[in-house]
Amino acid sequence: MIYTLTLNPALDYVVEVADFTEGSINRTKNELKYPGGKGINVSRVLKRLGVSSTALGFTGGFTGDYIENVLKQENIDTDFVRVNGDTRINVKIRGGKETEINGASPSISEDDIRSLESRLALLDNEDQLVVAGSLPSMLPPDTYKRLMIRLKEKGIRVYLDTSGEALTKALEASPYFVKPNHLELAELYDVSISSVEEAVQYGKKLLDDFDISHAVISMAGEGAVYLHGDEAYQAKPPERPAVNSVGAGDSLVAGFIAKHLLSNNPDEVLAFAVSAGSATAFSETFCTKEEVVQINKEIKTAVLNE
Ligand SMILES: Nc1ncnc2c1ncn2[C@@H]1O[C@H](COP(=O)(O)OP(=O)(O)O)[C@@H](O)[C@H]1O
Ligand SMILES: O=P(O)(O)OC[C@H]1O[C@](O)(COP(=O)(O)O)[C@@H](O)[C@@H]1O
Predict the structure, then answer these.
(1) Ligand 2 centre from 235 Cα, in Å?
(2) Measuring from atom 11 of ligand 2, which residue has the nearest CA?
(3) Residue 280 maps to which CATH number?
(4) CA dihedral over 216, 218, 223, 225, signed as positive or negative
(5) Span from the CA of 274 to the centroid of ligand 1 (angstroms)
(6) Which atom of ligand 1 lies nearest, measured to the CA of 161?
(7) DSSP β-bridge partners for residue 12
(8) I need a surface site. Which of 53, 76, 130, 231 has the fewest CB within 10 A?
(9) How far from 220 is each of 62, 146, 250, CA to CA, in Å?
């Protein structure tokens, strides 16, 4: 079974404003609300791609109820730990440029953590876990690392997608797969990454430094590169105006997992992952399977090995 872990979920509230003006009253042209948080997004896109998963993490209050209800309607299993406060609301403003205001997590108690640990203790070596998104600010930055070490001891594959200090620490637990975007990878090594060659160079370093099997470095409209052992692959999506970048990275992770379950062909796996990311970037909300399959036909791939 695949599990996703979202310690800091959100109700994503996307507002479209014709001409967003700071410091004045703006009226919305269009509004969308949906469950958010990276692991939850991965569960939702996996479902669209025909793969079942169970969503784990912390939810609370009316916003937590909303998330659980939508997942239930979509036939996604959940086993969240209920916390006292309200799950945060993340505001995404589409008005010319995209602006995001991500909220803070409700308080997480020691008991909440223990409840989460006992749910994770039920996983066995047949299971795979996607650990994704930010950590609630009151939790120590090595929280993912601590959880991952125990999971790894049981032979559970961990797919990791987080950023900042949580990423730096979690890498020390050697996940099976990691997906930083090129900016997160650059931050990790305190360098600047603007080309595919640089992404490959630091992506390979990431595999070596942290003993990781698979890494995908996503590069927004440029697609992504995939590093596995000594091999490097690139996939580039068709050029089209992006409508929505929220959840594109999560869709890429879901696409990678869905194809990796079925295929050992790295070229094919990366192409499908990038198709899922780009299908979301090209649509109002999340990609559908039909859109992913269609874009997959237009993806350009290359093997970058010497
Ligand atoms: N402007 C875009 N055009 C086409 N595809 C995009 C665009 N932005 C994102 N994507 C797709 O989504 C994937 C993840 O996007 P990226 O911005 O790199 O990740 P994240 O959302 O994690 O920051 C990319 O690899 C690509 O497939
Ligand atoms: O946990 P964080 O880093 O605050 O991110 C949460 C936000 O990221 C998202 O999961 C989208 O992530 P991506 O755009 O990276 O795919 C939103 O749904 C959510 O609001």
Answers:
(1) 23
(2) 247
(3) 3.40.1190.20
(4) negative
(5) 8
(6) 22
(7) 34, 90
(8) 231
(9) 33, 30, 12
Concatenating the DSSP letter of every residue in 178-197 gives E--BHHHHHHHHTS---SHH
Query: How many domains does the chain divide into?
Result: 1
Q: What is the dihedral of CA 11, 12, 17, 20, to 10 degrees?
A: 100
Structure tokens at 145: 């690392």
Q: Is the pLDDT of residue 305 over 80?
A: no
**pLDDT tens column, 77-105:** 999 999 999 999 999 998 878 899 999 99
Element (H, E) at 273: helix 266-281
ipTM, 2 dp: 0.96
Q: Which residues of 232-249 are buried (b: 16+ CB within 10 A; e: fewer)?
A: bbbbbbeeeebebbbbbb
Q: Per the structure block, which two tokens stand in for 28?
A: 């919305």
Can you tell me the distance from the alpha carbon of 196 to that of 219, in angstroms, rounded to the nearest whole number? 8
281 Cα: distance to centroid of ligand 1 (angstroms): 6
Measured from the CA of 90, which atom of ligand 2 is nearest? 20
Q: Which of 112, 142, 161, 250 is catalytic?
A: 250
Supply the pTM of this predicted model.
0.97
CB 130 within 8 A of CB 51: no
Q: What is the pLDDT of residues 44-75, one digit of tens each?
A: 999 999 999 999 999 999 999 999 999 999 99
Is the minimum distance from the CB of 115 to ligand 1 under 6 angstroms? no
Residue 296 Cβ < 6 Å to ligand 1: no
